[in-house]
Amino acid sequence: MTSRVAVRPVAGRGRPPAGLRPFSVVDELNCYLDSAAEPNNVHLEVWLPGQLSPSGLRAAVTAALAGSPQARARRAAGAWWRSRYAWECPPEPDVDPVSVVAWQDQAELDSARAQFLAATPPLDRAPLFRLLLARGPGRDSLILNAHHAAFDGRSCLSLLSLIAEHYGGLPPQPGAADSADTARPLPLSPARQEPVPADRPLPAARGPALTRPPASRLPLQRTARIASQHAHGPLPRRRAGHGVSLLGWPDVPAAPQPDVTVNDLLIAALIQAVAGWNAARRRWSGRVRITMPVDTRPSGQGGEIGNLARLCTVTVDPRAAADLTAAVAGQTAQAKDHHGPAVGPVPAAVARARLPAPVKRWMLRLATRSLGRVGCDTSLLSNLGNVADPPRFGTLSPTRLWFSTSAHMPRGLSLGAVTVDGRLQLCLRYRNALLDEAAARDFAAEYGAALSALAGPRARR
């Protein structure tokens, strides 16, 4: 595998504009949560049945940044004791965000992805995203790494679509693929990306009984944590880095009731998977809390770039739920109908405090380490929904589209979902301190079994 092309500086930073835009509370918190051990980034990946031109891709990125000031934002310089950060949009980017790598097999692509996602783009160097063009035999993988303080999942999708539009509108570049006719899509690896059969049942021995405990005991329950597992014994809880496991689905799973959405089904399956996973390892599991981002963009502004999601929580004890999917559906419908704050009151209070930003970052991380195991949600599921018009680069239409976001401890695991051309694609992001690669594959299988067991005969998209 060839070495990754180094990001190179381009023309100077330029004079900062006079107007600065303060970080929102969500921006601030995503900045504080970023660290070398837990990079707070958003990952979007497109598999294309052919090859892109590196020079054409760079030209498309340059054109996209020129027309979108928000996409080339960076954190404005300031004294260390400032209490709030601010965004500035320089007239041109500070670095070339595109790098190129070659791979020959799935293991090399996995290694390149892991290395690329191991760090977030620096906040003071525009743009706050990086693109890796991974060129393989017969197909390319285009991987986006964006800082979560500046981008959410929909922003990343909008950015990649904008770059694709510019790529498709540019003259053909030397060496670029003119047709997808000679493309050879790489088959899914049986160990990591094997599609789960839709009729695969959930093993009875691994699923917890959905019995109702006494109502008086429910308020006393603590939030369940996912049981850690490593093949060679326990590892330090602060072991750095994330891993990624891709889970393909042959179609869109069917929601069993008319008032249950596919998103409800995905959340219910994650709750069931956590309960089954913990039960098989004799780990306590009661109340499971799943973070669910809700897009707050007004209708018609779906392409707006920024961090524009509101975090809601779905809380269910699977042992107490007579109908797990119905219990989830009731909470998600209420969360979407009732507008609330973007984040919880305690993190919001920390972000708004008139203290130096480094002090607030220390306070938030200390609270997460000390109190997070009690108050932090169990896991997170972020669903981009059905992407009717995925990014198309000239004649190349995506064969796969993957999405994931960070999984900070003690949560340690998140699930990203996206549907393209009637096919659901799931990406499991996990902390290496929680699971190793083999355990992550096992958890993905547990989730696939739970989703198959809960799905009904017809899908509601």
Structure explained in plain terms:
The protein has helices at residues 25-32, 54-66, 106-116, 153-169, 262-280, 324-337, 345-352, 357-375, 437-454, and strands at 21-22, 41-48, 74-75, 86-88, 98-102, 129-135, 140-147, 242-248, 288-295, 309-316, 379-386, 400-405, 413-420, 423-431. The protein has 461 residues and is an alpha+beta fold. A six-stranded mixed beta sheet has the order 8-14-13-11-9-10. α1 crosses α7 (345-352), α2 crosses α4 and α5 packs across α6 (324-337). The two termini are 40 Å apart. Residues 1-17 and 171-220 have low confidence and may be disordered.
Short synopsis of the structure:
The chain has 461 residues and is of the alpha+beta class. 28% of the residues lie in helices and 19% in strands.
The portion of residues forming beta strands comes to 15-25%
Radius of gyration: 22 Å
Count of extended strands: 14
Q: How many helix segments?
A: 9
Return residue spans where pLDDT drops below 50 for at least 5 consecutive residues. 1-17, 171-220
- What percent of residues adopt helix (DSSP H or I)? 25-40%
Distance between the first and last residues' Cα: 40 Å
Could you tell me the mean pLDDT?
80
Biggest sheet record: 6 strands, mixed
